[in-house]
Amino acid sequence: MPRTIYLTIDRAIETYKKTIDISGGGVCGFIADGRERLEGILEFIKDDQFYPTMEAKLIHLFFSVCKFHMLQDGNKRMAIVLCAQMLLENGYLYCAGNFIREMENISAHVAAGKIDKMLLLEIITDFIYGNEDEDLKLRIIDAIQNQ
Fold this sequence. Notes:
The protein is an all-alpha fold. It has one domain: Four Helix Bundle (Hemerythrin (Met), subunit A) (Up-down Bundle).
């Protein structure tokens, strides 16, 4: 099994600044203890007992950055970008572009509490393995409409 390449806090901050600048701006910075919380998330996903697969690592990273508002602006953007960066650095080139395009809508629904971690697991797994599960699409629609 290949060694997983993880993001460092410095790399995440550099990516955050570039993302805010390139994507049209916004306030760049952390809220209260946001830096420490992001650093904790980046460290925690390294624990293979809690997050044994790439999907599990991505789900925790995406959900946490998107939902727990550590950044003054760009939380949803950063959830997408940091996960895409992990995908790219770990050889998942085939799905990273699609992930970036498609996860924008998903990130809004995660932030709003309409998509939980279990459904997010199915969504991200579907992206990685390219299943294009029609039943999953229906469950996403149901989650969005029924909350």
